Amino acid sequence: MPGAPADMAPPRRPFRLVGRIQPYAWGTRTGIARLQGRPASRGPQAELWLGAHPRAPATAVLPDGSLPLDQAIERWPEALLGGQGPLPFLLKVLSVGAPLSVQAHPDPAQAAAGFAREDASGIPRDAPQRNYRDPFAKPELVCALTRFSALCGFRPWDEARALLRAVDLPWTSHEQAVHALLRPSGQAEAIRDAIDLAPDALPGMFRWMEPLVRHHPGDAGALFPLLLRPVELAPGEALFLPAGQLHCYVDGLAVEVMGNSDNVLRGGLTVKHKDPDELMAVLDRNAPPSPVLHADADGCYPAATEAFALRRIAGHGRVRGPAVVLVTEGGLHVGEVAVPRGEAAFVPHAAGEVVVAGEGLAFVATPG
Fold first, then answer.
1. Which residues have CB under 8 Å from 293's CB, separation 6+?
2. Is 133 a catalytic residue?
3. Domains of the chain
4. What is the pLDDT of residue 59?
5. So what's the pLDDT on residue 85?
6. 3-state percent breakdown (helix, strand, coil) of the chain, nearest 5
7. Of 130, 266, 311, 312, which residue is the catalytic one?
8. Coil, helix or strand for 68?
9. Alpha carbons 43 and 33: distance in angstroms, whole number
10. 288 to 177, 240, 242: CA distances (angstroms)
11. Which of 87, 161, 277, 318 is the Cys-Cys partner for 52 at CB 3.0 to 4.6 Å?
12. How far apart are CA 76 and CA 85, in angstroms?
């Protein structure tokens, strides 16, 4: 990548942003490729990162060179952000072809304490067994580009108990059921029998269990649909996931914006590191169900966080930086920068208010 000259003036106009693909096994070969007008990829492409997270920063394409966005922000924090970094959010495209892990994210205090604790214990920050890779919270908002399926938040206990009894599981609370699925060894036979019974005992519910069973054979996490609310989003609908909300993405293409963090506590449906005790410690047992969200008259999605805001622009609008603008239909100009479908631009704070115009649809992420 050609670097930007050391004496280059700070950017004061929008510039192209080239995202980084994450080839996680649960991704698809076609979702992000179709969005960007490319042939199917050879291997899975799960996420397109459009931000400044140091693990996979997007590339800032500037008039006199290119450099990772996190380095650009470090060099010109006032021009790009209007103050010191880091950029508080990360915008992504998700292409989910197989269920993700059942997971939750910490709140700010939990993230800071967990990060300090693991640093003090000498766990390398890139170690597979690390829970807290940074000291930040990770609230999330996911907005569907196609039909998008997820499990999100606990069902009412009476409803969950009836489903569990249908497959001969005797658990008497969410707490007991989650503990059993996170540490299944003591009840492995009962859990296997329950999964075997489900197609006949719960034929309507098994459509949510089937992809979990198929992609993760033998994993007790296949029973989480009996505890968690199934949600199917239509294009343009969204979910906000606060800290402590247990969830699992199942299928579909979506835009996601989150706090600029990589802190994930996993509880099943994955070969990655799982820490049942830490996951239970961050779960919010009293979190209300996340409602399906729709954009308001200004295109904004409500989200209870200061880390980010997400807005849709159809055809014409105005954007004030810092902002990442991702075009998902047609093509738009962000200031003087032409942005085709599947590509993005960064609007620096120093650019002031910028006009977005053309025949297309964009998602705009800004600090909250």
1. 141, 237, 238, 239, 240, 301, 302
2. no
3. 21-57+89-155+227-299 (2.60.120.10), 159-210 (no CATH), 300-366 (2.60.120.10)
4. 98
5. 81
6. 25, 35, 40
7. 266
8. strand
9. 11
10. 19, 11, 10
11. 87
12. 10
Token output for 64 = 């006199």
Letter for the amino acid at 267?
A: G
Q: How far apart are CA 247 and CA 103, in angstroms?
A: 6
What pLDDT does residue 9 have? 87
Written as six digits, the tokens of 60 are: 């800032």
**Position 29: which residue type?**
R
pTM of the complete model:
0.93
Q: Which residues contact 133 (CB under 8 A, 6 or more apart)?
A: 55, 115, 125, 126, 261, 262, 263
pLDDT of residue 293: 97
Spacing of C-alpha 173 from chain mean position: 29
Q: Which residues of the chain have pLDDT under 50?
A: 1
**Alpha-carbon 278 to chain mean position:** 20
| Coil, helix or strand at residue 197 | helix
Residue 137 CA: distances (Å) to CA of 140, 177, 197, 254, 283 = 10, 26, 39, 21, 13
